[in-house]
Amino acid sequence: MEKLELVRKWSLNTYKCTRQIISEKLGRGSRTVDLELEAQIDILRDNKKKYENILRLAQTLSTQLFQMVHTQRQLGDAFADLSLKSLELHEEFGYNADTQKLLAKNGETLLGAINFFIASVNTLVNKTIEDTLMTVKQYESARIEYDAYRTDLEELNLGPRDANTLPKIEQSQHLFQAHKEKYDKMRSDVSIKLKFLEENKVKVLHNQLVLFHNAIAAYFAGNQKQLEQTLRQFHIKLKTPGVDAPSWLEEQ
């Protein structure tokens, strides 16, 4: 009987919410709107799409850089081998081997910085922001329930008041109040999460954008010392690279 009662309540709640959603889409039902909060939610969803695009592009850059570094390492080994076997061109093959190996080493260092950037932005987008959006979905569901029961109560209040309708109005008032409290709580939870998310996002992206800029600038300037210093500044340690693994990044 308890299970049947739970199923009955769930079915009734689902029906009311579905009716509310359809009514809103048809322009017949009224909808509770928190303009400031919903504007913040829209901005968050738009930013998430933009951050996901940056993430995809950074991952593409990492893959391409890894392939280039792998080729430079192989080219350096090939030059070094020919340097030993071609006495008349020993010097020429030798300094080309050294150049390619140095480029590969700097590329590995840059790859470490880029992969660290990717890992941090991925955590922000797919964990931190996604967690906030899950709370937003709960808030939106609570809003629909609140409006559904509010509409029910308003309709009952417009009708006659007698011995048959008063108990229904009282029960509707009780259900409305319960869903209003749930809606108010979820709205407060979303506001708090959005505030903390914004603070966290600024800190994370500030550090990662500085890292990305400094590493790229040092790499293309050929400043090996500055490149290595950038990784030390952000406590990034490189493992010994392996041919099959695209990333040997180790975050301390």
Please outline the helices and strands.
Layout: H1 2-25, H2 35-85, H3 90-158, H4 165-220, H5 224-233, E1 236-238, E2 249-251
Antiparallel strand pairs: 1-2
Helix pairs in contact: 1-3, 2-3, 3-4, 3-5, 4-5
Organism: Erinaceus europaeus (Western European hedgehog)
Domain AH: 32-232
Pfam families: Arfaptin (PF06456)
Helix-strand makeup class = mainly alpha
Rg for CA atoms: 30 Å
Order of helices and strands: HHHHHEE
End-to-end separation: 56 Å
The total count of helices amounts to: 5
How many E-type strands? 2
Largest sheet entry? 2 strands, antiparallel
The fraction of residues assigned to DSSP E strands is under 5%
Q: Roughly how much helix do the residues carry, as a percent range? A: over 70%
Shape summary: rod-shaped
Overall pLDDT confidence: 86
Order of the strands making up the biggest sheet: 1-2
What ranges have pLDDT less than 50 throughout 5 or more consecutive residues? 240-252
Coiled coil: 34-61
Protein name: Arfaptin-1 isoform X7
Keywords: Coiled coil
Domain AH: 32-232
